[in-house]
Amino acid sequence: MAAPVLDPGQSRFWESRESVVLYNPRDATTTSAAAALRSALDLAPVANGADGGETDEGLIYFFTSGSSGHPTCAGFTRAALTLSARAVNAFLGVTADDTWLRVLPRFHVGGFGVEARAWAASARLVTMDGRWDPRDFYRLCADQAVTRVSLVPTQVFDLVHAALTCPPSMRSVLVGGGSLRPSLQAAATALGWPVRASYGLTEAASTVAIQAADEPDGSRLTLLSHWTAQTDAQGRLVLHGPALPTRLGTISSLTEQPLWHPVSALHTSDRAHLDERTLTFLGRADRIVKRLGELIDLSLLDDQLADAALATGLTGRVRLRCEEDPRDQHRLVLECLQQAEGEAVASHFNTTQPAFARITAVRVVRDLQLSPLGKPLPAAPLSRPVAGLHDTSPEL
Fold first, then answer.
1. Global pTM?
2. Mean pLDDT for back-to-back runs of 10 residues, the chain (396 residues)
3. How many domains does the chain have?
4. Three-state SS for 114?
5. By the 8 A CB rule, do 328 and 372 touch?
6. Domain range spanning residue 300?
7. What are 239's strand-pairing partners?
8. DSSP code of 383?
9. Strand 20-21 vs strand 60-65: parallel, antiparallel, or unpaired?
């Protein structure tokens, strides 16, 4: 039942009734989960919803990390994916005269979404696969007169760090996959890059909200036309709309079978303030810990660390880890690739923080565990020290 990956830039992909499973081939866990999903689809198609409606024929599946630690797969109809693409195009004013550049991998919903937007607008599509290099990206944008692109904050930092000015053809740079800090946005804007922050999720078929053209920075985002939203009692964002997944399942390594969940609304872990159709994010509900009797929002600290790293020129080369501590409940450790770099970032970060939110140690590691988009993965909020590693400097 699961077909080979077709080209989302071609009409035959959108006219097909075959299911497609997209996954990162370099991730062993996801590769195994994708194989289990394919097997489950071939042997026992699942009814649509708890009441037993249509089968899941023709869905496009993406993988994301579930809160349980098991891979989560989200299956969308082609109609849901094209609806999401058209909503982004309408908000940005994309036309058939535009040229979209796909930099993010196709198995990521953000990369797939770029191809879907180009197809939906009958716009030209250019792709850049392989290892990310800001200068190669710049040359491609200039040579191909690219007008639209989606990036992650780390890639924006690389453009700023290399002092690359924006080619005159570029009309919008949609930034998602992480928080676009105002300091980084200002630096990119000064070089001419028309960056606009966005918020999206794999489970929402890519983009949910985008910074409006008249907003000075990405602290306030506007819901796209196909979404409605509310907040629950804990202030977490809840989404409703026709781009919700038809299938949402968790695949356990024990059963190797998807555990399907009914989808009537998408309950996120993002705390937000909602003013009509404008969103202001307040951090993540699942990343709050207590230290020295004070509550710490690790997602906000990650943003502040990004500012400190930008000030020292090291965005993408450091990561904050929260570990259990017998005395203070938790402690904050900065992981880095080089000792001197880590100490410089930690020192800058600590000057802006109260005592309970300061980094107490710097640790050199061999690998920062980069995501497929090239950004360091955030540490689990309640991680214990890793065996075999030790802090390579005195506590700060």
1. 0.76
2. 52 86 86 87 53 59 69 93 97 97 92 95 94 95 97 89 96 90 92 97 95 94 97 94 93 72 90 94 78 77 85 78 79 90 92 89 82 54 34 39
3. 2
4. helix
5. no
6. 292-396
7. 229, 266
8. B
9. parallel
